[in-house]
Write a structure and sequence with these properties.
The chain is α+β, with helices and mostly antiparallel strands. About 35% of the residues lie in helices and about 25% in strands. It has a four-stranded mixed β-sheet with strand order 1-2-3-4, sandwiched between helices. α2 links the parallel β3 and β4.
Length: about 90
């Protein structure tokens, strides 16, 4: 069985998050000035979330992990996720 691409996982997560009441989510786009930023930013019921999306078995780079730590230190809920089900767990759904 073929594993879903990271892009398709991101699309599924965005579709799910934006279907929830009180939630808004966007895909971030990297570049030379934004390296390491999480794939998805979301706010649900006033809480900020930063999700790094990976294929199953994937790990964040050191820069991505450090960036998630910075967001967490600022009060965000952060997670490395591989599916909509994992996002649901983070949200307590």
């Amino acid at each position: 069985m073929r594993t879903a691409s990271e892009a398709s996982i991101v699309r599924s997560i965005l579709r799910y998050l934006n279907s929830l009441d009180g939630c808004r989510a966007i895909k971030t786009h990297g570049g030379p000035l934004r390296g390491g930023e999480p794939d998805i930013y979301a706010v649900k019921d006033g809480q900020f979330y930063a999700f790094e999306v990976k294929r199953p078995g994937g790990k964040p780079t050191k820069l991505q992990a450090a960036t998630l730590d910075q967001w967490r230190a600022a009060g965000a809920v952060t997670a490395v996720v591989t599916s909509v089900d994992e996002v649901k767990e983070v949200l307590g759904e």
